[in-house]
Design goal:
This protein has 2 helices and 7 strands. The chain is α+β, with helices and mostly antiparallel strands. The chain has one domain: Thiol Ester Dehydrase, Chain A, CATH 3.10.129. Strands 1, 2, 3, 4, 5, 6 and 7 form a 7-stranded mixed beta sheet that branches.
Length: about 150
């Protein structure tokens, strides 16, 4: 099943990661599980840039589901440019999307994925309303636009 990334979304974060030798599989390309690790690293770095790392907060994000569409293989050596977008904030959730491309091949998307992200109280293990500052951050995309 292929999931489509919506046109209406807001760019909230970019980062570059080195492709490590250990990220590859026996076929000589980045293992599928590594793409999920790249997306996780991007989400956590983004949350850190907001001062909301999960390990030092009473509330924060959890992932409800995740997917990845693979278009072209990433291979060592090189760097992967990750662009993270957000959309569709609801009472306790919002969607996150990540595109992955080699830094030396700008505009060529190798993979794209996403996750439904929920805001929770960690101690209670219960969903909580999105904080106002986070809602404002993920809510600003006008219809049909990508804000970069």
């Amino acid at each position: 099943m292929k999931f489509e990334i919506p046109e209406r979304k807001k760019l909230v974060y970019e980062m570059t990661l080195p492709i490590r030798w250990g990220d590859m599989d026996a076929m000589g390309h980045v293992n599928n599980a590594s793409y999920f690790r790249y997306m996780e690293t991007c989400r956590i770095d983004w949350m850190g840039s907001l001062g909301s790392l999960p390990h030092n907060q009473a509330q924060g994000i959890l992932i409800v589901n995740a997917f990845c569409n693979f278009y072209r293989a990433l291979e060592y050596p090189g760097d992967v440019l990750l662009k993270m977008y957000c959309s569709d904030p609801a009472r306790t959730t919002f969607e996150t999307w990540v595109t992955m491309q080699r830094s030396d091949q700008p505009g060529v998307i190798c993979a794209a994925g996403g996750a439904t992200t929920i805001w929770v109280d960690y101690a209670l293990q219960k969903a909580q309303p999105l904080p106002d500052h986070l809602r404002a951050l993920v809510s600003d995309a006008p219809a049909g636009k990508v804000i970069e």
